[in-house]
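REQUEST FORM: STRUCTURE PREDICTION
Request ID: SP-0412
Submitted by: Lab K.M.
Chain count: 1
Length (residues): 342
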Amino acid sequence: ISTQQQGISTQQQGISTQQQGISTQQQGISTQQQNISTQQQNISTQQQGISTQQQNTSTQQQNISIQQQNISTFLVDKQNYDTSKKIYPTIQQAIDNASTYAVVHVSPGTYNEPIQISHPITLIGDNCNSIITQTDDSVVTIDSDDVVFMNFSIIGGDDGIVINDGKNNKIEKNVICRCQFYGIRSTESNGLLLNRNKISECPNGINLMDGKYITITENEITMSDDMGIFLQQCNGSRIYGNNIDNAHYGITLSKSNGNTIVNNVLDRGNTLLVIDSDSCDNQIAGNDISNAQYGIYIGDSSHRNVLGNNNTISEITQCQLECSLVVPGCGNNTIPSSIRRC
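STATUS: Completed
RESULT:
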């Protein structure tokens, strides 16, 4: 009887353990159901988020469409102007009357007037047959973001084009000549594009200060007594595909970091590529440098610059590479052994 009672007690304990297991399983099922409910809520929230994004995208597209419909077009024609039809005799009158992001087409002719642009606008000349001249001061001054200026000829003036503290401006396909100081000068520009401009007989071709993410591409600069392209305190910019002929200094970086100088042709001058004064982390590759006293100069405190193997340096009378005498000189820069140093 005692043995039977012990067996019954053991069975009861087993039943109790099974009941506890069933209770644990039920709790697990309840937890799973709660997790499924939470996942369903998360999916619902994500779907609502996607729906909101789609609505926002649709709204943005509608806004862009409305902006495109609202873009006004103006014309400058010295001979056949009619202001009631948005046709003006001078470029400045058209700019002053044009709405934000308007497009102004300028007919062929010579316009002897300084140009001041203070709001986003697009100005388009007639294949450089629209000529703007000025004897002193700047010929064109841009004090705005989002300006497009293209297809003009600019003659004379202290500076051809001056850009002050602007974002995302585009200067393209212009001919600039015989200015007294700078072909194109810019301060504190962000995202500036200088593309396929021709600059000649200006002491300095392109001069940029305190800028970021500037693109300088496929410009032709000839007969500059001093600087072809000069960047001071400009970071993250790209200089590629430019042709600079007969400039004392071809391309110069001063206190400028993280720039890329690629596939430029630099011909005739004193020193054709200058990495000067605290300019670091610049990439120089694929450039054709020829007919100068010095090919490349690396100045004081300029570190971690990389000169690729594919730069071509020829017809140099002094040396292909000169470094500052201040320690570390050429140290801490990557320089191929094929480049002959002073």
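NOTES: The chain has two domains: 1-70, 77-323.
Reviewed by: T.R.
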